[in-house]
Design goal:
alpha/beta, Nucleoside Triphosphate Pyrophosphohydrolase, seven-stranded mixed beta sheet
């Protein structure tokens, strides 16, 4: 069991297909218009890669190969003890139809889309460094996006 003051750990994927980035809205019921890269919470006893592959399949129906980490991002809710650390990995599609409609069996991700950099920049998204990581030149070491307040 996670200690209530321990940060939550999450793994996320940077998936480009036809020069477009896969993003999801993980706020069921239209609660927020905030977009992010797909992925989710890490379960004990499984590697970051195994957790990420599971989350991507649940949220998008895609199978992926997972590459190097490219970003470490953390955010918190100043009004509570919520603090999350996301580790982003570059990933490539190995199975599934990237253009097919998909329903997240857990009902968390209701919307997913492929966006260009310009389309992404016209949306509300997190983390702030997402366009740089996804569309910029690959960095040697992962970027670190320091602690920022949570958005809803």
């Amino acid at each position: 069991m996670r200690h209530p003051l321990s940060p939550r750990l999450s793994a996320r994927a940077i998936i480009l297909h036809r020069r477009r980035l896969l993003i999801v809205n993980a706020w069921p019921g239209g609660v927020s218009d905030l977009w992010c890269a797909p992925g989710g919470g890490v379960e004990r006893g499984a590697s970051l890669h195994a957790n990420l592959a599971r989350e991507i399949h649940e949220e998008t129906g895609l199978s992926i190969s997972i590459g190097a980490p490219c970003l470490i991002n953390e955010f918190h809710d100043p009004g509570s003890d919520f603090h999350q650390v996301d580790i982003y990995f570059r990933a490539a599609i190995t199975g599934g139809d990237p253009d097919a409609a998909w329903t997240d069996p857990e009902g968390i991700v209701e919307n997913r889309r492929w966006v260009t950099e310009a389309e992404l920049r016209a949306l509300r998204f997190k983390p702030d460094s997402l366009p740089q990581v996804a569309f910029g030149p690959p960095a040697g070491a992962p970027l670190y996006d320091p602690l920022e307040p949570i958005l809803r």
